[in-house]
Design the sequence.
């Protein structure tokens, strides 16, 4: 029997062919090494993180996440819900807390869910995968699986907004969370000390409406990593990973910079350090190749 078992909400961006499908691939590999079983919530739906604030109303937005929680409680009873996407985690946890705090809103949500034959108990904790790693396993346990330490690589831990506020990770500072730095050290690499952009927004919400503003924010994130001597950036957020990686060519063209900074997920770092292949670690999903990780994976 697996050591740890969770009800898993993958979210839209992790679907096959979506922008962070490589994230899910590396998470699956990481979980295999850590003996974690992820039981997908059947028939899950979008958490409405992106569209829910665009005028659809409060109840429809909360009810979408409530449906996922209700499905989890029905099909994976007693299992904590885990999300890998920062936006999915934030939206689901917010919905759970808001509904628990407002009996009238909870009744309205259940009235909507009843149309689909569901009832929300809302008794299930909502976790981000990094909370599972830190709180349920701990650094010593995740470090014990390292077979190929990531020696000689300097990595900037870019936390971003959504795993930092309003909830954050237990025991971490909002201004200077250290969990990615500790994870980087646990995998045998060197974290960038005093990386001053680790909690700055990447401008994801502005990427299409005001791209110049978004790209200026991304430029600062990358420059700070270079200033700290980083070889690459690691993040827990699919939006952050995509924005900071894919817009580097456009930023270079606009500003005359020569950015070519790999941006990877923590699960990719861990999979490589655990001795898995480049494909298992989802390095083939990088737009900017993480060559140092590729070299270690190929050994």
Sequence:
């Amino acid at each position: 029997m697996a050591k740890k078992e969770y009800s898993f909400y993958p979210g839209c961006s992790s679907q096959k062919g979506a922008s962070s499908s490589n994230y899910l691939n590396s998470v699956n590999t990481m979980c295999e090494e850590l003996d974690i079983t992820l039981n997908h919530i059947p028939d899950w739906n979008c958490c409405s993180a992106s569209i829910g604030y665009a005028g659809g109303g409060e109840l429809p937005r909360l009810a979408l996440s409530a449906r996922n929680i209700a499905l989890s409680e029905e099909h994976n009873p007693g299992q904590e819900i885990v999300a890998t996407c920062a936006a999915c985690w934030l939206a689901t946890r917010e919905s759970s807390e808001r509904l628990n705090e407002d009996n009238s809103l909870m009744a309205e949500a259940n009235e909507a869910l009843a149309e689909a034959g569901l009832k929300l108990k809302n008794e299930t904790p909502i976790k981000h995968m990094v909370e599972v790693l830190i709180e349920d396993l701990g650094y010593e346990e995740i470090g014990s699986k390292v077979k190929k330490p990531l020696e000689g690589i300097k990595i900037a831990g870019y936390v971003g907004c959504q795993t930092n506020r309003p909830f954050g990770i237990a025991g971490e500072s909002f201004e200077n969370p250290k969990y990615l730095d500790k994870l980087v050290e646990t995998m045998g690499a060197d974290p960038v000390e005093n990386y001053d952009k680790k909690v700055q927004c990447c401008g994801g919400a502005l990427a299409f409406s005001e791209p110049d503003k978004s790209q200026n924010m991304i430029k600062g994130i990358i420059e700070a990593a270079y200033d700290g001597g980083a070889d690459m950036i690691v993040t827990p957020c699919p939006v952050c990973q995509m924005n900071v990686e894919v817009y580097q060519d456009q930023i270079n063209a606009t500003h005359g910079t020569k950015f070519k900074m790999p941006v990877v997920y923590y699960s990719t770092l861990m999979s490589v350090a655990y001795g898995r292949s480049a494909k298992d670690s989802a390095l083939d999903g990088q737009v900017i190749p993480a060559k140092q990780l590729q070299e270690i994976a190929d050994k």
Observations:
- The beta strands are 4-9, 36-40, 81-83, 126-128, 154-157, 190-191, 232-235, 263-265.
- The chain has a mean pLDDT of 94.
